[in-house]
Amino acid sequence: MPETRVPLKDPMFAALLAFLVPGLGHFYQRRVFKGMLYALMVHSANDVAVAIAEKVAGSTEGFVQLMNEKAKQLGMNSTVFNSVHGLPPSTGQQHDVTTARDFSILCREIVMKHPEALTYTSTRTRPFRPGVPGKTVVMQNHNHLVGTLEGCDGLKTGYIYAGGFCIAVTAQRDSRRVIAVVLGSVDRKVRDKKASELVAKGFAALPPVAVHHAGANTQTPAPQKPALKK
């Protein structure tokens, strides 16, 4: 599946459909793509998900097709995407479906092949529309483990009533990285506690980092694939 790349400084004009979805919309204004990525990843702006999908694939339906093609390519065999934003389906639509293992495969693909994404997912707060009096929004990261769990720099939270409180979290300590996915928690605190426990178990299961003494012949170990926990 060929990749579609959009320059970070590409100005975007969100279509009407984008402003029918809850998020940070309500203004027909040109936005810089980089700023929209921050709105999407930090603030979970669903209207931005629609606007980006239309920019990349021409329509949300086209982007959903790309999502499912990528999922199949990665071996996410229990995953079917039906929307670009994960909100509850409208009448006649179907829910998005995945598993913790499938989603961890996607997370590993992002971390290993697109590590620049961590710049967005590790941001705790960021202004949207800065310098516009009365219209500036200070976006807060919904992932409360960023800044509180050692080494945590992503990835994403989610919630709908049918799916419960969900999180895909990753953390790096020294040269090692762990990914954990929790789905269907009864509340945010339970979700975050379980995710923290899984990250701790993941690091505990990894080989210890070698300690080299001064004067010893040392080599830097090659980066390892992130350990996955579900």
Overview of this structure, please?
- This protein has 230 residues and is of the alpha+beta class.
- The protein folds into two domains: 8-73, no CATH class; 99-208 and 219-230, DD-peptidase/beta-lactamase superfamily (Beta-lactamase, 3-Layer(aba) Sandwich).
- The protein has helices at residues 33-43, 46-57, 60-74, 100-113, 117-121, 188-205, and strands spanning 11-13, 30-32, 125-128, 137-140, 152-160, 164-173, 176-185, 227-229.
- The strands form three sheets. Strands 5-6-7-8 form a four-stranded mixed beta sheet, with helices on both faces.
- Helix 1 (33-43) crosses helix 2 (46-57).
- The radius of gyration is 19 Å and the shape is globular.
- Residues 16-21 and 24-28 have low confidence and may be disordered.
Give a nutshell description of this structure.
The protein has 230 residues and is of the alpha+beta class. It has helices at 33-43, 46-57, 60-74, 100-113, 117-121, 188-205; strands at residues 11-13, 30-32, 125-128, 137-140, 152-160, 164-173, 176-185, 227-229.
